[in-house]
Amino acid sequence: MILTTARLRLEPWVDGHLEGLQAMNGDPAVMRYITGRAYRAEETLAEIRKVQGYWRKFGYSWWSFFETGTGQIVGAGCIQHLAGDPNNPLEIGWRIRRDKWRQGLAFEAAIAMAAFAFGTLGAPVLCAICHPQNTVSESLMKKLGMHFQARRSLHDMPVLVYEISRDAWAARAAESPSTVLNLRT
């Protein structure tokens, strides 16, 4: 499932994305609030292989964000089950290469991924998590229309949980259809 936006092409992870994903995952600043440390190349490759299994099993998981102007991987994002448990709601997540921060790419990709989760998958709710100190991700969650739900511990770290319902997303789409609905899948 490939998603496109004005500036990005979102493609499911494949082995050929290793170099671009490792450039991002190997940056301690990018991974600070995700794992707390940079990944080694073999860890990124293992993550790619795990994600490929999720694509086969569920039909969704992580995408690489390719910048259409350069063809480079500039980020990654997902629709996956919170904490990897299929009984949990779907989670949306993202990370962006450091030299592409603060350009609106994560928001642009998140809109496409959320539209996929609600439109294609029919998710009743979509959640997102972030480390309490990751104010940039928290702001993006609020910009998507998500609301704070709880503080929890996931992946051995404290997280803030935000969510938005399909009905709230639909109301948002009605208010701003050019932002939410003008996406090609």
Q: How would you explain this protein's 3D organization?
A:
This protein is of the alpha+beta class and 185 residues long. It has a single domain, classed as Aminopeptidase. Helices cover 37% and strands 28% of the residues. The chain is built from seven helices and eight strands. It has helices at residues 18-25, 28-31, 41-58, 105-120, 135-143, 166-175, 177-180, and strands at residues 3-4, 8-12, 62-67, 73-81, 90-96, 125-130, 147-154, 157-165. It has an eight-stranded mixed β-sheet with strand order 1-2-3-4-5-6-8-7, with helices on both faces. A hairpin with an 8-residue loop joins strand 4 (73-81) and strand 5. Helix 1 (18-25) crosses helix 3 (41-58). The radius of gyration is 15 Å and the shape is globular.
Summarize this structure as a short list of keywords or feature phrases.
Aminopeptidase, 8 strands, alpha+beta, 185 residues, eight-stranded mixed sheet, disordered C terminus
